[in-house]
Amino acid sequence: MRIALLAHVRQRIAQPFMGGMESHSWYLADGLMARGHDVVLFAAGDSDPRFAIDPVVAEHYERTFPWAEHRGSAPLIAHLDAGYASACDRIAAGGFDVVHNNSLHRFAIEPRRTAVVPTVTSLHVPPYDALHWFVKESATPGHHLTVTSQRQMAAWWPDGAPRRASVLHNGIDATAWPFVANGDGSAVWSGRITPNKGPHLAIEAARMAGVPLKLFGQIEDPDYWDARVAPLLGGDIRYGGHLDGATLAAEMGRASVFLFTPCWDEPFGLVAVEAMACGLPVAAFDMGAAREVIGEGGCFAPADDAVALAKAIGEAMAIPRDIPRERVERLFTHDRWLDACEALYAQVQTVSA
């Protein structure tokens, strides 16, 4: 099958990943190629050269238009619109069997485009004004929408989802996140360092619980880091940098509990799944899809409640490590995810024929 994979272009599709959307596109391209598909990655031109890249923009837009300065600005919008318009035109003329759209851009879901090339669109975020109307108007036989959780499904369509929408849980290669039978008594946190991910609350809870904590991830919001995170570091609370997947997996495996602290309506929580694969039970805020994803692999605290999270840390550490690992193997594997993607591609092709 000849597949166009249309990615978000704020960051490179390359390791170390800035976030879940970059990881999703990279592993999707890699997995589909391994299954023998002809995949062209429409992404920032400075993405991983292992893929056949057709650039949407020459380089990821964070380098040209830093998001913190240009979010919603006319120059950024014009830059992205020009890139995606051209990319969508090339896809339409490129002889593709199907498009997997991860872009969160309105052009890719226009009915006039999905009528030409059958499209699967994966929505990785809660609904927001700039895209919500276009999504609702995009339902056509050749277009299937996916969300990452039941919680996200209800957020996008509170009155009931359209027939051509479904939950597609994210999946990971569990062999890349090796199971470790015992931890060292410490906690670990990983993710984009930004207010809506709540690392400052993870630090507060770990201190109250008397548990060493190491944080990993890209410092996306330097002002937040300087004001709310860096002043809390010291002693048993350390920052370990932004790591590639293999190094992060090794660091994860050493710990005894993962802290998951979303302060927004988290659509999925890929970092929690990665930690669970290593055998880490999770102490989490009960926000977004956290309970749906973590299930019996963790313990929960009310959102923004560091005191309750400190209590959940101790409770989570009592969960046998094989329980979170088994949940990942049952629900969130790479092969299960790719099987579902291939089934959707066949479905939209059949409906469009």
Automatic annotation (TrEMBL):
Domain Glycosyltransferase subfamily 4-like N-terminal: 18-174
Transmembrane segments: none
Superkingdom: Bacteria
Glycosyl transferase family domain: residues covered: 188-320
Entries under Pfam families matching the protein: Glyco_transf_4 (PF13439), Glycos_transf_1 (PF00534)
InterPro entries: Glyco_trans_1 (IPR001296), Glyco_trans_4-like_N (IPR028098)
Cleaved signal peptide residues: none
Name of the protein in its database record: Glycosyltransferase family 4 protein
